[in-house]
Amino acid sequence: MTTPPPGLRERKKRATREALREAALRLAVEHGPDRVRVEDIAEAAGVSPRTYNNYFASREQAIVAAVTADRETRIAAAVAARPAGTRLADAVSEAVIEQYTNPGEREREALLPIATGTALRDAFLDAAAEIEPPLTVVVAERLTDAGAQTARVLAASVAAAVRIALEGWLRSSAGAPGASGADGAAGAAGAGGPAESLGAKGLVVPSGSLPDLLRAAMAPLAPAFDAAEGRGRP
User: Fold this and answer.
1) What are the pLDDT digits (tens) for 97-156?
2) In this structure, how many other beta carbons lie within 10 angstroms of the beta carbon of residue 163?
3) Contacts of 163 (CB under 8 A, 6+ apart)
């Protein structure tokens, strides 16, 4: 299915949202998340606080939006790009892992505040729910006989599994000294390895292998995807 290009109004809305989230992350990195006000973000983006509230409900939501940066759309696009014969469970799992375990520079900058700040961490976990709508569309296109409700249930289950994996990954631990700062956290975001522990200032960084946690969380969904695709039927 070909999606028509966005109109001028939609392009302006996207540009405003991007300006707000980029300003939020820049200010959070420069001054610390707790020292950033909504008014500061709005001013940096050249809009009013009222306009800001049309896009984000909090400063944490805007900061996290910059980190995730349309990740849900990229996941859906990656699934849609897989060859038609690809097992859907594998296509979804690979797309999720790919998009969650290749941190860019801004993810590296924001990872420690997200891992150690309750409000930011909660907003980051809540953002996993955004996977559901675009993934529902691509899953429904693949499951032409299963119906839209089945596609939505599967997509919602993926979003829930991702959240559970992220909760485990971000859970604070009191291990021995390990890699410090954003570099250590970003390393855990990639291929993963042994638990990383305390940062240079005693901040707990994410521990464990995120790819492994995501695979484990999504593994129980594979039979449901297979059944919806009709795999294994005589």
Assistant:
1) 999 887 666 666 677 778 777 888 999 999 999 999 999 999 999 997 778 899 999 999
2) 18
3) 125, 128, 129
